[in-house]
Design brief:
The protein is of the alpha/beta class. It has ten helices and eight strands. The chain has helices at 28-40, 48-67, 75-85, 93-109, 117-126, 141-151, 163-166, 174-183, 197-206, 238-244, and strands at residues 4-7, 14-15, 112-113, 130-135, 159-162, 190-194, 210-214, 230-232. It has a six-stranded parallel β-sheet, with helices on both faces.
């Protein structure tokens, strides 16, 4: 019997890509805002194109290291690494943290709800399920909670896990297990839904949950050998699927 439904956030409930079709290009507004802040503070900086190139080059290996349990990843870590890569000295931790805050604000500004996200989560909650969230993010959970507040999602959630806050990254089973403990349910009574099969399906299955691949924005294809328990194209398909299960 299904007792809990756990959602991914970015690309599933809230779309953060803005005008950008692929990652890491969608981080452009954040990098732009961080760089502008340092310019305003009067720091000597290389051309923005060099900074952006360094950020884009660093993101994939930093992300892989996080998902392999080798290191945590936060925006401040990315910015500090990009500065070091470009041999930019003299920007202290306070101004790196302030730039990271502006980075997050810029990403928030391009966020929008996925169609039917609030209605779907509300219906799942009204149907009697526990509702949770596990999100791979290099931003503090407070930033994403603010987005969820703004879009009216927060009241429906019983437990949330944000990877950068707890240093637990999908597709490892750890963040899924943590949310299950918070919800007070067993893995075989829970469903996880997300738009990235390599993280969401692999991780959910590793934790012993049923998994639903939400095709949504179509940004992520299903890797060979990764098989979700179900696939949906619209969030409105989720509740009828749960009823069948």
């Amino acid at each position: 019997m299904i007792r809990a439904v756990v959602f991914d956030l970015g690309g599933t409930l809230i779309e953060y890509a803005g005008a950008f079709a692929s990652w890491p290009a969608l981080e452009t507004p954040g990098l732009t805002a961080a760089f502008a802040y340092w310019q305003q503070r009067g720091y000597a900086l290389p051309p923005f194109a060099n900074f952006q190139e360094a950020g884009f080059a660093l993101l994939p290996p930093l992300w892989r290291a996080a998902t392999r349990h080798e290191a945590n990843l936060r925006v401040v870590d990315l910015l500090a690494a990009a500065l070091a890569e470009l041999d930019v000295a003299g920007i202290g931790a306070v101004d790196v943290a302030a730039a990271a805050e502006r980075y997050g604000t810029a990403i928030q500004a391009q966020a929008e709800l996925t169609p039917q996200a609030v209605a779907t989560v509300a219906q799942v909650k009204a149907a009697g399920f526990q509702v949770g969230l596990v999100s791979n993010t290099m931003f503090p959970g407070t930033l994403h909670r603010a987005d969820m507040d703004r879009f009216g999602l927060t009241p429906y959630f019983d437990e949330m896990v944000f990877s950068a806050d707890v240093n637990m990254w999908k597709p490892n089973a750890d963040p899924f297990r943590q949310v299950l403990v918070g919800l007070g349910v067993d893995a075989d009574t829970a469903v996880y839904i997300g738009d990235d099969p390599a993280s969401d399906v692999v991780g959910g299955r590793a934790a012993g949950m049923r998994t639903v691949y939400f095709r949504g924005n179509g940004r992520f294809a299903t890797p060979p050998g990764v098989i979700p328990h179900a696939e949906i194209t619209e969030l409105t398909e989720l509740l009828p699927l749960l009823a069948r299960w």
